[in-house]
Each structure stands twice: as C-alpha cells, then as structure tokens.
Specification:
heterodimer, A: mainly alpha, 65% helix, flat, B: alpha+beta, 2 domains, 7-stranded mixed β-sheet, 15 strands, globular, Alcohol_O-acetyltransferase (chain B), Alcohol acetyltransferase (chain B)
Amino acid sequence: MKYCYHCGVSVDHVTCPLCHRKVAESIDNEVKLYPDYPDMTLKKRRTFIAKIVTFLSIVMASTCFVINLLVNPDYLWSLYVVGGALYLFVTMNHTILSSAHTGSKIVLQVISLSSVLVIMDITSVFQRWSVNFAIPLIIIMATLLITIIILKKRMRWREYVGYILAMIGIGFVPIGLYITGIATILWACAGTSLYALLTLIGMLLFSSKTFKEEFIRRFHL
Amino acid sequence: MSKWYKVDNAGKVFHAVTEASNSSVYRVSVLMKDLVDEEILQEALDHVIKRFPTLAVKVRKGIFWDFMESNEEKLSVQQETTYPCHPIHPKENNGYLFKVLYFNKRIAVEIFHSLTDGTGAVEFLKTLIYQYLTLQGEDIAVDGDALLFSDQVPSKYETEDSFEKYYQKSTRNYLQDKVQRAFQIKGTPFDPSGVNVIHGVIRASALNHVAKQKGMSVTEFITAVLIHAIYSETMKYGVYNENITIALPANLRRKFPSITLRNFFSVVNVRVDVSGDITLEDIIKTVSEQLRSKTDRQHLQDGINRHVQLQKSLKTRIVPLSIKYHAMRYGFRHYGELAKTLTLTNLGSINLPDSMKSYIERMEVVLYPTKNSPINCGVSSVNDQMTITFARSIVESEIIKSFFNQLSRLTGLNVEVYSNNWGETK
C-alpha cells in the first residue's frame, strides 16, 4: 500500500485517485478491484442510425415540398413523399431499430400505414380505396397476427392483452367511417368490425379469468 | 396465475424520473476474501431468488399506475464489465430490474430503486452470500434472525407496503410546504458518461470513538465533515445566498416496526446556511441539532403522510399515467433535486452472523449520481471496516479529496482509498 502525502490517504494505485499525483512507479495488484472498461461506443451505433434516418426523412420531405410549392403549387404531389418519409421514419426508428414491444410495433404500423394510405388517396382525387379496402384489410391482418402470436406464446400471452384490446378497438373504426359516410363499402367495414367482435368474444370465452385479472391490474387506481 | 404487486409509495417516483443521466440504480456489494466462483454464485442465486418474491418481478404498464408481476425467467449472474449503477435495461436482463454481478472478489447486487431500499437489498445480499458459502461447503452457523433463509416461506409482512400501513390522515396540505433551494454542485460531465467511484476505508470502531468524543454520532460527524468540504471547496469565496443541504435517507423500520422488503424510507434534509465565514464546529452543532429533531417519530410520520397523501387523492389516481409521470418529474426536479446539494446514505453496521464475517473483507454501497446531484455518498460497515463511497458523474473531484483529507486529519486515522478510475486517463 502506498501513501499520498498530499491527500493524507493510503492508496493502492499508481496515481492517487483524489489528486491524480503519481505515488508509485507500478503496483503489483495480484487481484484487480475493478475491470478495465472496454470501449462503450458500440451502443451508440443504434442511436446514430436512428438520427441518420430522421435527418434523411426530413431532407426528403422538406426538399420535395419546397420544389412542389415553387414549380406547381396547384397539385400537391409532394404529399406522397411526405407520407412516404413519415412511414420510413416510423418503420426504421420504431419497428426495426427500437426495442419496443412487438405488440406496440404492430399497432403503430397499423396507424402509420393507414395514415400514409389515406394521405395518398386524398392527394389523388380521393377514390376512397384507402378507407374502403386498405384500412379494413390492414386491421384484420394485424388483429390476426397478434392472435397468432398469442396462441403461440401461451405462457406469455398476458403481455399482448393490451395490444389485442387496442386492435379490437381499432377494428370498430371502419364501421364508424361507414356510418359517417367517409367509407362507402359496407361489407368490408362490417366484416372488419365483426372480426374484431368475434376476437373479443373468443378471448372472453376461452380465458375470461385472465382477461378479468389483466383488466384489474392494468386499471388499478 | 402469476402474482402481482402494486409499486410501493416511494417506488412510483423512480419509474417516472429514470433517464440516462439518472439511472435510479444503486449498488450494495461485498468484497470476499477469496475469488468468486461464477457457477456456485449462479446456483446460489437460483436458490435464493424465489425467497424474495417482490424482487423477482418484471414491470408492466398500467393505465393509471405501473405494476409488478412475478417473473419466472432465469436471472443470470454477470461478470462486471461496466461502471457501477449503470442503467438496467429489463429487456437485456430477462425482464428483471436487478442484477447480480461478480468481479474477482466482489459480489454486487445492483437494484432499480423502485423494488426496494438499501435495507431490502442488504437482506437479499446477506442471504445470497450465506447460500453461496453453504454451497461452497463452508459450515456456517447462524443464530437467531440474523438473516433470511432461502427455504423459508416469505412472510406477508415482508411484501407489504408499510407506507400504507403507517399513513395517518391529515388535514395539512403538504403541497403548500415551501421548498428552499439548496446549493447545487456543478461540474463537467464525463465523456463518455459514466460513474466514477472512490471508496475510502477507515476503521469503524475508531471513527465511532472519535465521533463519540465530539458528542455526536458517526452519521452526524460524516455529514458535518462533508458539508465543510463542500463549503471550503466551492463556496468559501464569493457571495452565496443558498444553503448546503445534505439529504439523508432514514430507515423508517427503526421507528415504525416493519420487516418489509420493499421501500420504507424517508428523506431527512440537513440544511446549513453558509452566508458568512463558518467553522467546522458551527456546522457540527447545526447538523447534530437538525438530525436529532428531524429523525423523531412525528417528523418521520409527516414524511410518510406527505408521500402517501398525494398519491391517495382521487384527483391524482384517475389521471392517466403519462400525465402523472410528467407531474412527478416536475416535482422531482423542482422540489426533490433542487432542495438538496447531495445525498448521503448510511446503512450503518451490517448485522452478519459471526461465522460469515471471516469470509468477508468489507462492504460497499454505491448511490447513483443524478444531473442535479452529480456527487452522492454511500456508507456501510462490516468487520470493523467502514467504507465511505463517493459516486460522481463529473470530472471535478475536489470535494471528495477535501473530505478524505479532512477526515484523516481530524481523526488521525488511516484512510485507504481506491477507485474504479472511470474517466481517468490511463
């Protein structure tokens, strides 16, 4: 054990941890007290890629929007690009790069993809293909996907309860769109909502206890 | 069906305020006399973990509050590779909010503060070490209730939220209590960010003797020396209207009978005005007076009521979690963090069976630094070895240097210092 006369303490290092003055030429520590810390920059890579994606999305969207306004402001074609850039941003930064729950990735994909398709539909004369066909299909596919995950992960399905409930809730959006006159094809909208209702009934019938328990936990005050 | 627990009253705030610069992860560790065997430590952990049901949990999101659910996954021991109190990412840790680490002779437990306080962590560590030594074939005799055994069934008292139990309805509106802003330590954050720890080891009985001679407890003495170090290194020259405030977590189990293994502590703020010239004797007098009056039962009862009252009101309860967390973060920054200069936690002398002591060199407590409190201090003693540990997230170390310098000068005792050297040029 060495002694640092400047700080008045015994030291087991080459330099004093308090004043950083050298107190020994070398220390023969037979057993180290702490590890040598390896380079910790690897973890930053993911954040760096996310920043690049964010920057690229902003560059794409803003450049096209400005060109659009300068060249032919009567037809806002740049909204296609803005929608695409937004979707790229969500897909890269949330679906691919983030460590978020798979359930939340699916729900956010449904919301972002639906929004992009609606923007594209509206930009090109609003033929209503997005609200009539695309959104109902996306919702059914996503609900089916979460149902399959739940059936496969039996032991850990509880974690997906919130997300399947969210999808069931979203499943009733198309019928709302039909009632308000935004969507015009009844069978697609009603089919989606019926599918959501059947999923809910199935959940309640086969595992009402877990459902009830999960509800109590998630909503406890 | 898996068990679930509400997050206890003190624990809720840690869910809200945790971020990269505030991990809410603290460490209790022991330095063994021999090198640690990874396989035996893993076996010991597998035995012990079920004995602590409120630690073996994963956190789940709720609409109004988060909650804990029992975790059936395996928790693997890990070799220490990064700095102490590194944020815990549950996804990389099988959902668990605590880690068991080893490095050469050290066995460390790092815990997200929402699970338990220092007392709970020490109980877990004691049981783990006991199991580890037993699996190594050592004959450890344990008398009385010095530790919890892994084959015992957990008592319901161990899993209770004692804040709820001792809460008394009060008409006082604690939100109207005025908070005095304290002096804040400023410095250059490490790049890359991390935590540097400096441990100082001193003979506990000798320090106790010195403190007794001055008519005070060890905690009072250390607090006073620390305040003097902060004053002499940062505020001696210039005009300051702020005060130096040391936040001392108080173990409520000492005044309110409880054997809970969840959080049950309150924070006592010791405040010293340093507007003019001030001597160590002045500081000692103020610290002793305040610490004694603020750790009486009524004062601590107020602390419990303050904690629980706000969370019990219906207005708070029915607000969605994300909004509540924003409000809690605001309260933490403006009422908790700005009201203190640093935190000093003293777990005291750890009650270990005599037969275990011969296998243990000493104990360390590392308290995570935060953005506004970039230096924190943890104290514990075992085997007559007291370890005073400073954890800091800034380059500047003058306060720590001054503290140990004064400690060795005032007591005449030898202080042995070692560090993890984070941020030092090699």
